[in-house]
Amino acid sequence: MKNKTLKKYEGYAYIGIWLLGFFTLQLAPLVTSFWYSFTDFEMIGGADFINIRNYIDIFHDPDFLLSLKVTFAYVLIAVPGKIIFALIVALILAQKLRGINLFRTLYYIPSILGGSVAISVLWRYLFMEGGVVNNLLSVIGIQGPNWLGDPKFALGTISLVTIWQFGSSMLLFLAGIKQIPTTYYEAAEIDGATKLRKFFSITLPELSPIVLFNVVMQMINAFQEFTPAYVITQGGPLRSTYLYGLMLYETGFEFFHMGYASALSWILFAIIMVFTILIFKFSELHVHYGDD
Fold first, then answer.
1. Which burial class, exposed, middle or buried, applies to 95 when counting CB atoms under 10 A from its CB (0-12, 13-18, 19+)?
2. Alpha helix locations (H) across 165-238?
3. What is the pLDDT along the chain (292 residues), one digit of tens a residue?
């Protein structure tokens, strides 16, 4: 009995640190943010309760509508681009070739480095008007555009930072490909199926749960994106890269409208939740689990 009691308290001790971190660093800020979203809190002075005024003002704010439009465009570019690129690379790295483990490591490195301020600065120097990319294009006689100064190219250019960080998605796809029974492909080959047919009839259906997971996770990350827009373009040119995360940051930490920023964050949470539910609902028709 004594040992049982001791083990029980030992278990509490192990999870105690995690619980402390959860309540102080996650739950408390979450609850506080929700309360602030109904106030006019501006970091200096008190926080007066103003009911849903922040939410009403947000939907009449042209900056909100603009940032939402830009963010949706960013999500539509970055998420499919990253998933497709990760799947293509995973299919290549699934081949039995000499030194393939080295290539797998090299392809994963950008995901370790990506997302940082340093990588965003590097990206800016690569795509600036007289940068490395345009210099390489000029060697083959192509006049490169102003990637970061032209509204037609700026959003796509910063989206490439996210697409470039495909390592985690690629590893999941690679693990999934390794789990597909080879007998499926052997049977398809006997039936005379082409490589394309085998991909769409075997590989893709078998990977559909991983596709679902990657889509949901990358969609959540893309909606919250901030660093590339802040470091590379500062929301320009002509606010063509004015992402929602950048607006939220400026509202809270440059203009100190914390109540308004809290309301913005909860609207973003609601948007992400709605899209996640829709994706899961839609997935019921297309996601294949095992022997279903």
1. exposed
2. 167-179, 182-190, 195-198, 204-223, 227-228
3. 556 667 767 777 888 888 889 899 999 999 999 999 999 998 777 788 999 999 999 999 999 999 999 999 999 999 999 999 999 999 988 887 777 777 777 777 777 765 578 888 888 989 988 889 999 999 998 888 999 999 999 999 999 988 988 888 998 999 999 999 999 999 999 989 898 999 999 999 999 999 999 999 999 999 999 999 999 999 999 999 999 999 999 999 999 999 999 999 999 999 999 999 999 998 887 787 765 5
DSSP state of 180: S
- Beta-bridge mates of residue 49: 39
CATH code at 219? Answer: 1.10.3720.10
- Number of compact structural domains in the chain: 1
Q: Which residue do the tokens 């606010």 mark?
A: 239
DSSP secondary structure letter of residue 15: H
Among 66, 76, 46, residue whose Cα is nearest residue 235: 66
Comparing CA positions, the residue from 171, 77, 172, 165 lying closest to residue 115 is 165
Q: How far apart are the first and last CA of the chain?
A: 47
Residue 88 lies in a domain: yes
* Residue 4 pLDDT: 67
Pair of tokens at residue 154: 């700026």
Give the single-character DSSP code of 256: -
Model confidence, pTM? 0.90
3-state secondary structure 107-150: HHHHHHHCCCHHHHHHHHHHHCCCCHHHHHHHHCCCCCCCCCCC
Whether 138 maps to a domain, the answer reads: yes
